[in-house]
Every structure is written in C-alpha cells, then in structure tokens.
Design goal:
The chain has about 350 residues and is an alpha/beta fold. The strands form 5 sheets. A 5-stranded mixed β-sheet has the order 8-5-9-16-10. Helix 1 packs antiparallel against helix 2.
Amino acid sequence: MNTFIQRLSNERRQPGLHGALRRFVLPSLLALASVCAGGIAHAAGERPVAQGVLAVPAAPAAPAPVTAPVPVLATAPADATTAPPAAPTTVNGLVRVPDGRLLAPDIARIVTRGELVVAMLKVDTPPFFFFDDSGQWTGLEVGLAQSLAKELGVKLRFNRDAATFNAVVDLLASGQADLAISKLSRTLARTQTIAFSDAYLTLNHSLILNRVKFAQLAHGRPLPEVIRSFSGSIGVIAKSSFADYARTNFPHAKVQEFATWNDVLVALHKGEIVGAYRDEFEVKRVLKADPTVSLVLRTVTLKDLEDTLGIGVAVTDPTLLAYVNQFLAQRTEKLDIHKVLQALER
C-alpha cells in the first residue's frame, strides 16, 4: 500500500484520472494506513498515552467478606482487623469513612467494620472481668472496653479464646483482636510482640509464704535478708508475667510453674512450695476470702517492685495506641489497689 501511495504522490503533473485519484483517493488511503498502523500497535501491547502518563487498568476489586452477625461474647477466631474495603487514602494518609470523616487507617478500620474486638482471658477474674450472680458480663476491665467502644461509636465484641495471659497477647499479635484488655502486665518480653498503653493500674509485687516452710528456710535470719537472697521454692502461674519476674527477681529460687493460681495455692498449703508469687491484689484477695489462712500463711509486699497493667495494641496501629493513651488520660476515675479491693466486695 505504501508503494501505491508513493506512486500517486509522484504523479504531480498528470491530469485527468490520475489527478483526481491524487486529490480524492490519496487522503483516504493515508487515513486508512494510519488506522491500520494504530491497530497493529495496539495488538503489540501498547497502551494509549494521555498527558504523558500510562493509564494502567485497575485490577478488579476483591469481593468484601460476608460476615454473619456475632454475639457480644463470641470467640470466633476470624481476623478481627479484616474490614470492608475503605475509601482510598488521601495525600496525608487519612481515610474517608462512609460518614464522611477523615480518620487514620487503624481507626478507620474499626469504624468501617462497626465493631471493636477485644482479646480477654477465658478464665473469669473478678473484679476485672467475670459473670456476676445474675449472669451479666461485668467487671472493671469490661467497663473499660465498653467505654472505649462507646467513644469510637462502634459495637463491642470480646475474643476469649486465650487460655493463658500470654495467649491473649498472641491473639492480638496475630490480628484476631484490635486491643487486649486482660489484666496484662507490661513486660519486656511482651513488648517485643505488641505495644502497651500507659498504665491504668499499678500494683506492687507480693509473696504469700507458708509459715512453717519459711521458718525452716530462714533459720532465724531477719525477713528482709531472707527475701533478698531467697533460695526456696516459689510457685507461679505458667506462662504468666510473674513466671518471668520470679526468674529475674529471685535468681537463686527454684521456680515451679502451675497451670492455675488455685493449683499454686494448693501446693502452698500442702507445703510443697515455700512461697507463691503474684501481685498484691491477688495475694491480699486470698486473705480477704478466708482470714483464717493467716494462721498458716503470711504475706510480704515488695514495695520496690511494681506490676503495671496496660492495654495491648498491635505494633502496626500507632494512632490507635495514641487514642487509647488519650482516653486513659481523660478518665476521671483512676484505679488503685484500694478501689480494686472495694470492687471485689460488691
């Protein structure tokens, strides 16, 4: 075709039919050649260019997961951080949620889902979280979670799949919850996996001792001296913060781990261990429940050692962490050991 066009173009002085062909047919053939060339280029994989930017077709969006309604105390293992696709982020990293607000991505995830998921130990721990006599789910930390959900304007769901405190941390770290509120001690080991809020309750460490066994260990030495170099056996809950604390604070002691706190106390009463190690609330609670145990047991509060409780937040959620810290700072009611013990009496 190109040769034919060239021939027509060269016949500049030929009148008649050749002139007519040059005047009328040549432009049509040139246009047809341009169209054909464009078709060949398109078939070769080239994309049209607009203002110097390649327009790449967007990949089809994945369908949003269909989630069945979940009761408040559901323990479904589904990824709690999964949410319906949010609107595109703006230039400053914020996300526009359905009601028009611009929010940080980690807050927008919860608001768009319409639900805050909180990881909590499956074992009831009054007065922090438990079912009362009327079957109502309540407690100091339950109220804390409810207030946070209210501030965010979303529903609340608890994930209680965790059988140990460290398992609560794992639920949060694996994305099965937005927060962890479960009488969690802020420890170095845990902060390698999750972030912690500021402390909302500070408790001293405490020992509860078998009087007979401790007297045999002391051999008449003063109490502070025996405690500082404690070389007896100490019972702790397995995979708890105090299992770590015991090895750090009592390097000469024989640390024995038990499945539950009740198992620790049974061993203590039997004289199988010299002492039990936990926070002052749990130790004082033992004597409060049965004052007669003071005949065989004694307690020691370690004023120089503190156990700070915080709310766990995923390391990928910095704005949510800041939000939780601000929420705690604005609370008018601050918790301490006395208020916790009073709550236990209700």
